[in-house]
Amino acid sequence: MTSFHDQVIQILPKLRVQALSLTRNRSAAEDLVQDAVCNALAAQDSFIPGTNFSAWMHRILRNRFISDLRKRRETTDIEDVPASSFASNATHEDSLALKDLSMALSRLPADQREALVMVVVQGMSYEALAEATGCAVGTAKSRVFRARRQLEAWMTGDLPANDKLRVKVAALRATLDDRRRKGLKSDDLFTF
């Protein structure tokens, strides 16, 4: 049987991912994880051994985030995430796609974004997600489904004609295509 402290140490990477998806700022995410771990240690006696420790910790982190958000009433921008958090250097086109994805993720409602990250990135089950976020399993599945469907629509260009993101992406893609036809590199798109 793993000790309480060992379980806390094992779950830290997943808590960091969840915190980063909530705060969209590395420094704030680290602070949030630290505060959540402090809360968990203070409430250690309330944890029932044999129950889902992961869901318990994720719920503490989420509740701490909500409490902090209520105190500050402000959010941070996804642009605060350093480029070094990506696994490898991306080509210019990959960078555009990642920026598109980042913009699309930031447009999702917070509950859908959180659910999507917890299931897709962290590999959490729908049951654990439901327990961590305090909703029904059907609601958790629905949030992930709606987030995936909306991201797919935004990323494939299946958007209303007046959607600003689609217009920007279409303009960038048209510029890249034009540069390729002229034999110019897309890497130097922003050099004048």
Automatic annotation (TrEMBL):
<dbReference type="InterPro" id="IPR013249">
    <property type="entry name" value="RNA_pol_sigma70_r4_t2"/>
</dbReference>
<protein>
    <submittedName>
        <fullName>RNA polymerase sigma factor</fullName>
    </submittedName>
</protein>
<dbReference type="GO" id="GO:0016987">
    <property type="term" value="F:sigma factor activity"/>
</dbReference>
<feature type="domain" description="RNA polymerase sigma factor 70 region 4 type 2">
    <location>
        <begin position="100"/>
        <end position="151"/>
    </location>
</feature>
<dbReference type="InterPro" id="IPR036388">
    <property type="entry name" value="WH-like_DNA-bd_sf"/>
</dbReference>
<dbReference type="InterPro" id="IPR039425">
    <property type="entry name" value="RNA_pol_sigma-70-like"/>
</dbReference>
<comment type="similarity">
    <text>Belongs to the sigma-70 factor family. ECF subfamily.</text>
</comment>
<dbReference type="InterPro" id="IPR013325">
    <property type="entry name" value="RNA_pol_sigma_r2"/>
</dbReference>
<keyword id="KW-0731">Sigma factor</keyword>
<dbReference type="Pfam" id="PF08281">
    <property type="entry name" value="Sigma70_r4_2"/>
</dbReference>
<dbReference type="Pfam" id="PF04542">
    <property type="entry name" value="Sigma70_r2"/>
</dbReference>
<dbReference type="InterPro" id="IPR007627">
    <property type="entry name" value="RNA_pol_sigma70_r2"/>
</dbReference>
<dbReference type="GO" id="GO:0003677">
    <property type="term" value="F:DNA binding"/>
</dbReference>
<dbReference type="InterPro" id="IPR013324">
    <property type="entry name" value="RNA_pol_sigma_r3/r4-like"/>
</dbReference>
<dbReference type="InterPro" id="IPR014284">
    <property type="entry name" value="RNA_pol_sigma-70_dom"/>
</dbReference>
<keyword id="KW-0805">Transcription regulation</keyword>
<dbReference type="GO" id="GO:0006352">
    <property type="term" value="P:DNA-templated transcription initiation"/>
</dbReference>
<keyword id="KW-0804">Transcription</keyword>
<feature type="domain" description="RNA polymerase sigma-70 region 2">
    <location>
        <begin position="12"/>
        <end position="73"/>
    </location>
</feature>
